[in-house]
Each structure stands twice: as structure tokens, then as C-alpha cells.
């Protein structure tokens, strides 16, 4: 059974708390598992969440501040220890290759050859691998060290419309031929095209935006996504601190989601400076700008991807 959901393994920022572990987010996508920013303690959080090293097919690091990468050694070594056989794609900023190398080989262990490295550079990099059901776009952000956000994007598909197929006399093996070739000859001799008997099914899209100020990269990553996972380190009252250290406030995260037309806004990466009773303020400030669904996450939360957005059928021809 295919599963598409986000498992929150950690939701703190630079300093973990008693209630929040360092970062860690596993996006499960039809048998693929994208592990974003494994911070310290991620391996143990995975055990609490009931997921294993074998569930990881991607490791995506936004940047090399410790709360976003210090879990890499444990994850890589667990992949080796558990004998994971499938390829694991490791994506990270090329400018931090020395840090990746140190983390990748942080201690002695029986190494694995399944980890495939994909360093990214420039303003935008797109990985479109044959064995993945989506493309992964990395977009440069604005932070004191080079950082990238990621966008997971599924290609659009088509939904066949039975009533139009019937009206055109297309049935049985002709339906598959129509799907594969884009046109068929109906029993009455007429040519029938795929556009006449289908509607576009928009592919699902998820953006993962960590440590950054507002910038073009944030806008591009978030545009039209079904789910936007985004840092909201500070409350709006501390916006000068956010700008100084290269972060977003909850209100800014809400405005990003509203401007982008996002479906579901997921707030995370909270500073330890705030108390538990302040949590509602993050959601309130985001909701003042964004009227859609909002999840203020806690460790081990599971958030399903929203239902697919419907596309309008093409007019009959």
C-alpha cells in the first residue's frame, strides 16, 4: 500500500529541549523515504517512530549547521550495519563537501557502497533520477552559511473519463492503447485523442524550507505546493533577531504560504527561547496571514499529504 506522509523526528532549532529533539523529517512517498536534515539523535527518534534505516532512500541536508546534520554519522552507519541494499541518494551543498566527508566517515565502521553523493551548487539544481517517481529541486536560500531548500515534485498525470470514452466508443484494450500512444482509431473509424477523454491530474508537490530569510529561493520552492514544511524559528516580535541570524518568523512563514498558494502549512524549527505556553502564538501569527490548514508540529507527529488538487476537465470536443 502506498503511503505519503511526513514523520517529524525532531522540531527544535539550534538547542534541543526536553520536548523537542534536533531536526529530522522523513517524507514517505510511495516506497521512497526522504530524510531531511538529520540532526543529533535522529537514529533514536526513528526507533520511537517505528521506521528503520531500510526506509531511507534519500538523505537531504540543507546546510552544515549542527542541528541539521549531526545525525548523519549515525544514519549512514546504521544503513551500513543493517545491510541496506538499495541506493541511498545523499544531497548536500557542494560548498560543504568537507563537512559531509567528516560526517560521512566520523568514526570507524564497516562501510557501505550504497550511498550515492549528489552535491548541489549554483542558484538551482534539479535531480531527476530514473528510479525516483519525482524530481528533486534544490534552490539556494539566504543564511549566514550556504543553504538550500528542496522541492519534491511529481509529474502531472491523467485521469480517464469513462463517460467520454463510452461516447467515443473506446473500450477494452483500446483504452490502454490510448493511454500509451495518445490516440487511437475508434470502431467507427474516427481518431480519438487522449485529450478528448481525460483530464490532467496535477502531480503532488512538497517544499522543505529551513534556515533562511525571505528570498527568491523561498518563493520559488513554495509556489503552488500541496505541503510547505518551513521553519518558524521566531515570533514576529523578534523579527530583528530573525533577520540578523537568517531565519523566518511565524508570521513570515504564513505570508510565504499565502503568497505561494500553498495547500498545507507545516511550522517547525522552534527556538528554545519560547515557553510551551507560547506555542499557540506561532500558529496565531501564521494564521493571520494564511487561511489554509496549519500544523504546528511536535516530535513524532505524522502528517498525511493533503488530497490531490482537482483539475478542471477539458471541455468535450
Automatic annotation (TrEMBL):
Cofactor binding annotation: Binds 2 Zn(2+) ions.
Residues given in the record as Zn(2+) 1 binding sites: 63, 65, 143, 211
Keywords on record: Endonuclease, Hydrolase, Metal-binding, Nuclease, tRNA processing, Zinc
Keyword Iron: no
Metallo-beta-lactamase domain location: 21-247
EC class name: hydrolase
InterPro entries tied to this protein: Metallo-B-lactamas, RibonucZ/Hydroxyglut_hydro, RNase_Z/BN
Recorded GO MF terms: 3'-tRNA processing endoribonuclease activity; zinc ion binding
Amino-acid positions noted as binding Zn(2+) 2 in the UniProt annotation, renumbered to this chain: 67-68, 211, 269
Residues at the active site: 67 (proton acceptor)
Domain of life, source organism: Bacteria
Catalytic activity: Endonucleolytic cleavage of RNA, removing extra 3' nucleotides from tRNA precursor, generating 3' termini of tRNAs. A 3'-hydroxy group is left at the tRNA terminus and a 5'-phosphoryl group is left at the trailer molecule
Assigned EC number: 3.1.26.11
Cofactors named for this entry: Zn(2+)
Function field: Zinc phosphodiesterase, which displays some tRNA 3'-processing endonuclease activity. Probably involved in tRNA maturation, by removing a 3'-trailer from precursor tRNA.
Family named by the database record: Belongs to the RNase Z family.
PANTHER family according to UniProt: ZINC PHOSPHODIESTERASE ELAC PROTEIN 1 (PTHR46018)
Known partners and oligomeric status: Homodimer.
NCBIfam families found in the cross-reference section: PRK00055.2-3
Protein name per its UniProtKB record: Ribonuclease Z
Protein species of origin: Actinomadura physcomitrii
Upper taxonomic lineage: Bacteria, Bacillati, Actinomycetota, Actinomycetes, Streptosporangiales
Amino acid at each position: 500500500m502506498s503511503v505519503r506522509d511526513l514523520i517529524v523526528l525532531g522540531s527544535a532549532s539550534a538547542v534541543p529541549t526536553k520536548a523537542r529533539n534536533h531536526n529530522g523529517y522523513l517524507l514517505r512517498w510511495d516506497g521512497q523515504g526522504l530524510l531531511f536534515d538529520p540532526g543529533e539523535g535522529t537514529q533514536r527518534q526513528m526507533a520511537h517512530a517505528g521506521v528503520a534505516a531500510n526506509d531511507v532512500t534519500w538523505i537531504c541536508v540543507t546546510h552544515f549547521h549542527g542541528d541539521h546534520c549531526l545525525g548523519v554519522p549515525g544514519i549512514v552507519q546504521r544503513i551500513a550495519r543493517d545491510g541496506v541494499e538499495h541506493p541511498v541518494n545523499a544531497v548536500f551543498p557542494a560548498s560543504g563537501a568537507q563537512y559531509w566527508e567528516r560526517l560521512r566517515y566520523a568514526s570507524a565502521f564497516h562501510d557501505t557502497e550504497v550511498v550515492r553523493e549528489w552535491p548541489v551548487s549554483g542558484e538551482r539544481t534539479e535531480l531527476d533520477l530514473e528510479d525516483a517517481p519525482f524530481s528533486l529541486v534544490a534552490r539556494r536560500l539566504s543564511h549566514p552559511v550556504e543553504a538550500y531548500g528542496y522541492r519534491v515534485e511529481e509529474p502531472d498525470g491523467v485521469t480517464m473519463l469513462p463517460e467520454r470514452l463510452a461516447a467515443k466508443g473506446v473500450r477494452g484494450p483500446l483504452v490502454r492503447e490510448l493511454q500509451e500512444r495518445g490516440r487511437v482509431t475508434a470502431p467507427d473509424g474516427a481518431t480519438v485523442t487522449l485529450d478528448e477523454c481525460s483530464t490532467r491530474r496535477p502531480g503532488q508537490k512538497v517544499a522543505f524550507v529551513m534556515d533562511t530569510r525571505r528570498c527568491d529561493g523561498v518563493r520559488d520552492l513554495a509556489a503552488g505546493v500541496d505541503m510547505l514544511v518551513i521553519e518558524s524559528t521566531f515570533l514576529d516580535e523578534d523579527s530583528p533577531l530573525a533577520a540578523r541570524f537568517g531565519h523566518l518568523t511565524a508570521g513570515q512563514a504564513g505570508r510565504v504560504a499565502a503568497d505561494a498558494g500553498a495547500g498545507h502549512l507545516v511550522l517547525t524549527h522552534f527556538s528554545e527561547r519560547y515557553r510551551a505556553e507560547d506555542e499557540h502564538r506561532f500558529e496565531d501569527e501564521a494564521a493571520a496571514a494564511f487561511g489554509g490548514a496549519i500544523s504546528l508540529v511536535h516530535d513524532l507527529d505524522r502528517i498525511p499529504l493533503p488530497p490531490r488538487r482537482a483539475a478542471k476537465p477539458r471541455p468535450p470536443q
